[in-house]
Design brief:
The structure is a single chain. This protein is of the alpha/beta class and about 280 residues long. Helix 1 crosses helix 11. It has 2 domains: about 180 residues, Rossmann fold (3-Layer(aba) Sandwich), CATH 3.40.50; about 70 residues, no CATH class. About 40% of the residues lie in helices and about 15% in strands. The chain starts with a strand and ends in a 16-residue tail after the last helix. It is globular. The chain has an 8-stranded mixed sheet with strand order 1-2-4-3-5-6-7-8, sandwiched between helices.
Length: about 280
């Protein structure tokens, strides 16, 4: 990251901008830094000024206790101000939940796109997340970062043999290094249910995308986001999973962001559809 700005509470945020055009800020999900968003940034940089950044507690950015979701919204506000005072947002997974928080807070945004925010759509599905929150909090309080990472990987459905293989991989120390930020993402997700009241308050266009090869509950959650946001659009990308190919995702995002940048132009899908 070649640039720094300060959030409202003084936390330094590392970011970089590539390309020219309207600003688009990419928000990463759990266990990731801004670097994971660079392939998508490259795919969008021919039409937009794309910003990737290290969320607080990760990479080259700082962290300031105590944590609150509002501080991460202020981080996005600081980035938007640093790149011209207006931007569109894209967030993946729990980073998408943070992007939706930012949109509901009234930041100067042209639009928000999210990919597979892992909301639960039924009350019964929140039990697993409640147990995860309790065990994660305990592991981090005791300094058991490796155990915290394992808890997260199990939450995502990763098989035990793959988790144990990850522990032996060269990537594991880096994963343990940012394990405390798992608590940040857990807070961003709240209780895990689709936040209908928050989504209903968003006044800018929202694009909610899911992979056609992802589990049905993820597609259902993505559709629920689009149906609840007043200007919501749903897209399903055929053959894609939770890790979408930037070459497939970028054209969909580019079309949405271009439409959102022109308030008088009709959006590509005014209401949710099952487009492939």
């Amino acid at each position: 990251m070649d640039k720094k700005t300060l959030s409202r509470d003084g936390t330094p945020l590392a970011y970089e901008r590539t390309g020219q055009g309207p600003a688009v800020v990419l928000v990463s999900g759990a266990m990731s830094t801004g670097a994971t968003m660079r392939p998508l940034a490259a795919a969008l940089s021919d039409r937009f000024g794309v910003v990737v950044y290290d969320r607080r507690g990760r990479g080259e950015s700082g962290d300031t206790a105590p944590y609150a979701v509002e501080r991460e919204v202020e981080d996005i506000a600081a980035l938007v101000e640093a790149v011209g005072g207006e931007a569109a947002l894209y967030g993946i997974s729990s980073g998408g939940a943070l992007a939706l928080h930012a949109a509901a807070s009234g930041l100067p945004l042209r639009g928000v796109a999210v990919y597979e925010v892992p909301y639960a759509v039924h009350e019964g599905a929140t039990k697993q997340r409640t147990e995860y929150t309790e065990r994660l909090t305990e592991a981090l309080a005791q300094g058991r970062r490796g155990d915290a990472v394992e808890l997260f990987l199990r939450l995502t459905g990763l098989a035990e043999e793959m988790i144990q293989g990850a522990r032996q991989s060269p990537m594991w120390p880096g994963m343990e290094a940012i394990a405390p930020s798992l608590a940040h993402d857990d807070a961003v997700m709240g209780g895990g249910l689709v936040p209908t009241e928050r989504l209903a308050s968003i006044t800018v266009p929202v694009l909610s995308v899911a992979g056609g090869a992802s589990p049905a509950w993820m597609r259902e959650a993505a559709r629920a986001v689009a149906e609840t946001a007043p200007q919501g659009t749903y897209r399903s990308l055929e053959g894609q999973t939770h890790t979408a190919d930037p070459s497939v995702l970028a054209p969909v995002l580019a079309e949405f962001f271009s439409s959102a940048a022109q308030p008088g132009q009709e959006l590509m899908n005014p209401k949710p559809t099952d487009q492939k």
